[in-house]
Amino acid sequence: MISQGISGFLFLQLKKLAGNTRCFLSSHSTKSTKLLSFLTLPAILKVDATRTTTGRRKMGKLQQLVLASAFATMAHLTPAHAAAPSYTFDQATSCGSWCYHDPNLTKLTDGVVGNRGWAYNAGTEWDGWVGVPNVNITFQFAQAMNFSSVSVGSTQDSLGDVVLPSFDLWAYQGGNWILKGTITNPASSANDSSPYDSGPHPVFTFSGLNVTTDQLRITATPGVQGTWVFIDEVSFNAAPVPEPATWSMLLAGLGLLVWARRKASDVKPVAYPNRHKAVTIGLFG
Ligand SMILES: [Ca+2]
User: Fold this and answer.
1) Do residues 9 and 114 share a domain?
2) Are residues 137 and 186 located together in one domain of the fold?
3) Which of 54, 120, 149, 228 could staple 207 via S-S, CB 3.0–4.6 A?
4) What is the three-class DSSP state of 115?
5) Domain total in the chain
């Protein structure tokens, strides 16, 4: 968001520089004319720079703005390449009637959501664990992110088979796992559904987080021990946090801007020879 703001500011400065030159014909010029004039701005300023102090000052400012814009654009593009998280379990999945393994560790972040009845699509969407006290799923992100919410999908058929778990959310900060939220699902037959129910299953969301980290952990604890835990998808609402290198690029761009403005204000008037007069002297002097 900050890099976008800086990029926008740099563009406005560039536009202002263009608007102050004669290449913008008038306020009534068409958009195509203004765009053509904008694209020819460097050439026009270069010609002006050979004639006047103002033209030379504007040419210098244009060069600094283009360089600063390049820095800001690089900084803006860096967080846009944040990769999807990888994840691991601390308990092995089980197959059961169908197979609830996740051999490539992709099923929880592939965007594919199962049905409320785990058997409706042969259970292929679900990761499953059975007879474990709990399971920790740890997500590793390519860079630090600011999380506003995290959602987990699960289901239940009966208290003697597949049971809704409770969830804890942890963030790795300062070398420790910090508890950020708990969603409790007490064991209740009210959550029962047919294994062939084609409707949507419950999704449990940790909201209003404002948590910055590059690692999150979800602990799923079954409401009844010895039963199954099923999870099909975990989704994150997050924005990338600029890394130190990104901040360095932004600061470098801002520094160039300040330097360019000071340089422009330091320019002293220079007496340029009148070209017409010079020709006159050449002819008749
Ligand atoms: Ca999935």
Assistant:
1) no
2) yes
3) 149
4) coil
5) 2
Tell me whether residue 230 is in a domain: yes
Residue 105 and residue 153 in one domain: yes
What is the percent of the chain with per-residue pLDDT over 90, rounded to a whole number? Answer: 54
Band of residue 20 on the pLDDT scale cut at 50, 70, 90: low
pLDDT tens, position by position, 26-83: 555 555 555 555 556 666 666 666 777 776 777 666 666 666 666 665 555 554 444 5
CA of 177 to the centre of ligand 1 (A): 25
Residue 280 is assigned to a structural domain of this protein: no
Short-list 217, 259, 247, CA closest to 63: 259
The residue range of the domain holding 52 is: 2-79+244-275
Residues 53 and 37 in one domain: yes
User: Do 209 and 91 share a domain, yes or no?
Assistant: yes
Indicate the pLDDT class of residue 163, thresholds 50, 70 and 90.
very high
DSSP E strand boundaries for the chain = 86-89, 127-130, 135-154, 165-173, 176-183, 203-222, 228-240
Q: What is the mean pLDDT of the chain?
A: 80
CA separation for the pair 29, 40 (Å, rounded): 15
Q: Separation of 124 CA from ligand 1 center, angstroms?
A: 9
Cα 43 to its chain centre, rounded Å, is 37
Which one has a higher pLDDT value, 10 or 101? 101
Q: What is the CA(55)–ligand 1 centre distance, in A? A: 60
Rounded distance from Cα 227 to ligand 1 centre (Å): 21
Q: How far is the CA of 245 from the centre of ligand 1 (A)?
A: 34
